[in-house]
């Protein structure tokens, strides 16, 4: 009897399918180069735009536009309001307009609006522009996860979702270095301040990525016309999804709502995502940057030092993704991510701790972020047998999370309480405990559902 061939060392890190054909291996490589790359770049520019608001605020925008502390919160509320309003309509539009047209078109609009931020002369103008930026950016995250879930198998999904999400951390790092360089090299050039040049550079970087999206986004397996996929690739893609029980997507109609809202999926997964999105402050409020500003650090260092947080997010996102795909256990790895968030929040809630521990708490806080893309991958799998439900649930999860995020951070992390945020850090500690609980509940419900399905199939 022949012994089974030993798996190579890299199988613990990346995909390993000994039964895969050469054609399937090449097909997945094409997907990674085309779909994963363009989605990651799109998420990069989206998060670059979001992070740049925070960097611009601490780099002169506050003083130039005579902004009071709560106006930064209002900018967040405006963006989040637009983001929530645009979510579900976008999911319906995606059933009538190709993703390769709809997504890049919206990216182009938010790029133009980013240029407009450089010309803002008042806080109210920034608030209004950010509302419309949120409206067009709302389409991207749930649409991207629907696309990723429509092309990749469960053993491939977690890594791709988290690599996609890791581009947000790369954006956070890049924004800090970009603002530091712009502030030093372009501040005052052509009569524009460093914070204005930041938005201009943001738009310059975003434009070619938007245009590339029209060619690189492959739509769905059943209607792709991507230049890098042939007919055999399309047939293979449809077969792969059929093999894992992931149904092809159809046009959404009102009848889907009854099917979605009579299952536990949408309720439990939405609560899970609401808790995740609201475990910390809003995206434009950086407790570490505000702490550095309050303690007298120079502007360049305020922009550069927090990039270490993004580095932690980048490393943990990729590491947890690989671990979750290898173990085939999303909730276990999500709970590890939750633990780091809980520890960080607890230390900052105590506040009177040694200086080194204080820095440690700020940096490990970003290890809680990988929970988000892993939860989206999990939702893709839980709802995999019903493509219409999958599209709606992902949209409802994201929209609901940010609907609460539109107002809750104003209560939990008001900028007037910076840098200590006593109320906010205590809230975050409790929220992470709740996140442990809802993760366990969803895991139990999913296990019970699969058990019932097996019993039915076996005629028990």
Automatic annotation (TrEMBL):
Any one GO cellular component localisation term in the record: plasma membrane
Pfam families for the chain: MFS_1
Alphabetic keyword roster: Cell membrane, Membrane, Transmembrane, Transmembrane helix, Transport
Cell compartments where the protein resides: Cell membrane
InterPro entries: MFS, MFS_dom, MFS_trans_sf
Domain annotation Major facilitator superfamily (MFS) profile: ranges: 35-449
Bilayer-crossing regions: 101-121, 127-149, 161-183, 195-217, 260-279, 299-320, 332-353, 359-379, 391-413, 425-445
Main location (coarse class): membrane
Top-level taxon: Eukaryota
Gene Ontology terms for molecular function: transmembrane transporter activity
Protein topology in the membrane: Multi-pass membrane protein
The keyword Membrane is assigned to this record: yes
PANTHER family, sorted: PERMEASE-RELATED (PTHR43791), TRANSPORTER LIZ1_SEO1, PUTATIVE (AFU_ORTHOLOGUE AFUA_3G00980)-RELATED (PTHR43791:SF39)
Family the entry assigns: Belongs to the major facilitator superfamily. Allantoate permease family.
Designated name of the protein: Major facilitator superfamily transporter
Organism phylogeny: Eukaryota, Fungi, Dikarya, Ascomycota, Pezizomycotina
């Amino acid at each position: 009897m022949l012994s089974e061939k030993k798996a190579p060392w890299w199988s613990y890190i990346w995909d390993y399918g000994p039964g895969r054909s050469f054609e399937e291996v090449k097909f997945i490589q094409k997907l990674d180069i085309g779909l994963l790359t363009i989605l990651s770049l799109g998420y990069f520019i989206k998060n670059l735009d979001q992070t740049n608001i925070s960097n611009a605020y601490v780099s002169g925008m506050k003083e130039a536009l005579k902004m009071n502390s709560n106006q930064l919160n209002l900018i967040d509320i405006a963006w989040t309001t637009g983001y929530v309003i645009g979510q579900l309509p976008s999911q319906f539009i995606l059933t009538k307009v190709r993703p390769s047209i709809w997504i890049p078109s919206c990216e182009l609009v938010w790029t133009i609006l980013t240029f407009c931020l450089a010309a803002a002369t008042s806080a109210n103008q920034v608030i209004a522009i950010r509302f419309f930026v949120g409206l067009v950016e709302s389409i991207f995250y749930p649409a991207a996860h629907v696309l990723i879930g429509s092309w990749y198998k469960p053993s491939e999904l977690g890594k791709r979702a988290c690599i996609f999400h890791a581009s947000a951390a790369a954006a956070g790092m890049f924004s800090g270095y970009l603002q530091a360089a712009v502030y030093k090299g372009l501040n005052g050039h052509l009569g524009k301040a460093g914070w204005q040049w930041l938005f201009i550079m943001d738009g310059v970087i975003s434009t070619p990525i938007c245009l590339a999206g029209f060619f690189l986004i492959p739509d769905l397996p059943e209607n792709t016309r991507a230049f890098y996929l042939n007919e055999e690739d399309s047939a293979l893609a449809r077969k792969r999804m059929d093999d894992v029980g992931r149904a092809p997507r159809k046009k959404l109609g009102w009848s889907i709502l009854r099917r979605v809202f009579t299952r536990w999926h949408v309720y439990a997964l939405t609560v899970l995502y609401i808790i995740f999105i609201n475990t910390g402050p809003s995206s434009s409020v950086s407790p570490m940057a505000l702490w550095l500003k309050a303690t007298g650090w120079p502007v360049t260092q305020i922009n550069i030092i927090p990039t270490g947080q993004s580095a932690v997010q980048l490393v943990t996102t990729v590491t947890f993704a690989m671990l979750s795909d290898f173990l085939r256990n999303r909730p276990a790895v999500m709970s590890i991510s939750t633990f780091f968030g809980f520890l960080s929040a607890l230390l900052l809630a105590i506040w009177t701790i040694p200086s080194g521990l204080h820095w440690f708490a700020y940096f490990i806080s970003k290890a809680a972020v990988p929970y988000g893309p892993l939860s989206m991958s999990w939702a893709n799998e839980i709802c995999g047998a019903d493509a219409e439900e999958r599209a709606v649930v992902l949209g409802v999860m994201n929209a609901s999370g940010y609907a609460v995020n539109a107002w809750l951070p104003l209560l939990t992390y008001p900028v007037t309480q910076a840098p200590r945020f006593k109320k906010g850090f205590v809230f975050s500690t409790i929220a992470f405990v709740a996140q442990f609980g809802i993760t366990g509940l969803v895991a139990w419900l999913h296990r019970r559902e699969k058990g019932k399905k097996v019993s039915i199939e076996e005629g028990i």
